[in-house]
Amino acid sequence: MEVKTPNPGPSPCEGKGIEVKVVIPSHKRWDRVLTTMAVDNAILCVAESQRELYAKCNKGVEIVTHPDSVVGLARKRDWIVQHFKNVMMLDDDIDHLKRIYTGKGEPMIVEPDEAYEIIQLTANAAKAAGAYVFGFSSSPAPISFDSFNPIKLSGYVTGCAHGVLEGSKLWYNPDIICNEDYWISLLNAHHHRLIWKDTRYYWSQKDTFVNRGGLAEFRNLDAEEKDFHLLRRVFGDVVELRKSKQNAKHPFQKTLKLPF
User: Fold this and answer.
1) Residues 90-100: pLDDT tens digits?
2) What CA–CA distances, in Å, run from 132 to 118, 119, 146?
3) Into how many domains does the chain fold?
4) Backbone angles phi, psi at 141, to 5 degrees
């Protein structure tokens, strides 16, 4: 008896589906971009004055520039969202997309072409659900994965890997220096009450809290403290300091206690 493989149907980018651009915001790290090897079709977004250096060190990668007047990651992200409309933003220091679940015979590391397709599928699922922000797991530990609830509809997204879809009420506050992921997660909770997180996957990132270029140029304890107080003024006591100091990288590391 002949067994026929079912037709998988159209790509999420065909028909009524949306195509999400995969964009890597980067700053003064032209010779250390890793993420273009973790996912196909990624676009580097850099300041106009840094274009030549990035082009020299990242052959064959599409580069989109913003004006040099766009300073700081929050402003850069806001420019990216306005420019690309439907976008997945990935930090420039990501090694690979990792499977949190342990499917039989499936490799833990996702290949770049499949990583791109997973982004497209996740974005289209988010849109179908009515969500404007989508993301993936914030923990690489398999023990944190709930196989009975792989899709989370509340919570927050990490700054290193999250997507925003057009039509929302979302924007990035230029006064936020280090914590634009907390800002967008809280603003999304306030306006839309819905997020789409596929916790089956985790974007594996190198530790860049102190690193030349990127956000490290602006990040320090004073900036973290200012961000904390700004978030508290705008969103209230749902923004808390992390009670456990054992694994905190600095005294102003935060946690969110969303009421839904």
Assistant:
1) 999 999 999 99
2) 17, 14, 23
3) 1
4) -85, 125
